[in-house]
């Protein structure tokens, strides 16, 4: 935990100068630590924390996300949606892209910053008006999201209003607010 704190305070120091310095002054220090966070060495990545396979996977995910974002921008330009959270995205992918997207299916909507996302195999099954990536075996259909908009997370879903104490919130946000 101390290593995390030291790294985090050092990383935020250029932006949150006074706050980082205040935390630094209260931290227990080793004899080799700088007196001020502003004089501390930039943290170096520990080789044991590096994971080349994970990095490669996320590079591919971000490449796919970039192509899906192009479809969202086209839908925004055509006034189908206003904000990305106003969208439901259906992704039609080739075998390798599908396998990658399937591995993150549970978090796909969050990664894409949309209300709902689903994946389908075979780009041939995509609607005619779907965005087709010139670079990847990928087609994306964007439609307005259904359901009500949660006032806390802004996601459109069918669970908004199902919790009587918090009628403007989705179930997930209502459960979080109840715990506060």
UniProtKB/TrEMBL annotation:
EC number assigned by the record: 6.1.1.5
Domain Zinc finger FPG/IleRS-type: 147-176
MF (Gene Ontology): ATP binding; isoleucine-tRNA ligase activity
Residue ranges that the Swiss-Prot or TrEMBL entry lists as coiled coil: none
Pfam families per record: Anticodon_1 (PF08264), zf-FPG_IleRS (PF06827)
Heme keyword on record: no
BP-aspect Gene Ontology terms: isoleucyl-tRNA aminoacylation
Swiss-Prot/TrEMBL keywords: Aminoacyl-tRNA synthetase, ATP-binding, Ligase, Nucleotide-binding, Protein biosynthesis
One annotated Gene Ontology cellular component of this protein: cytosol
Span of domain Methionyl/Valyl/Leucyl/Isoleucyl-tRNA synthetase anticodon-binding: 1-90
PANTHER family: ISOLEUCINE--TRNA LIGASE, MITOCHONDRIAL, SOLEUCYL-TRNA SYNTHETASE
Name under which the protein is recorded: Isoleucine--tRNA ligase
Organism in which the protein naturally occurs: bioreactor metagenome
């Amino acid at each position: 935990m101390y290593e995390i704190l030291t790294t985090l305070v050092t990383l935020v120091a250029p932006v949150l100068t006074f706050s980082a310095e205040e935390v630094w002054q209260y931290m227990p220090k080793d004899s080799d630590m700088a007196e001020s966070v502003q004089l501390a060495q930039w943290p170096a990545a520990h080789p044991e924390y590096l994971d080349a396979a994970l990095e490669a996977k996320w590079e591919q995910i971000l490449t796919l996300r970039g192509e899906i974002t192009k479809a969202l921008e086209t839908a925004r330009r055509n006034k189908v949606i206003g904000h990305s959270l106003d969208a439901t995205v259906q992704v039609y992918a080739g075998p390798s892209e599908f396998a990658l997207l399937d591995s993150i299916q549970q978090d796909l909507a969050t990664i894409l910053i949309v209300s709902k996302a689903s994946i389908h195999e075979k780009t041939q099954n995509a609607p005619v008006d779907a965005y087709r990536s010139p670079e990847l075996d990928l087609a994306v259909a964007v439609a307005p999201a259904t359901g009500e908009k949660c006032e806390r997370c802004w996601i459109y879903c069918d669970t908004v209003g199902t919790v009587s104490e918090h009628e403007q919130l989705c179930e997930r946000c209502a459960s979080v607010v109840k715990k506060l």
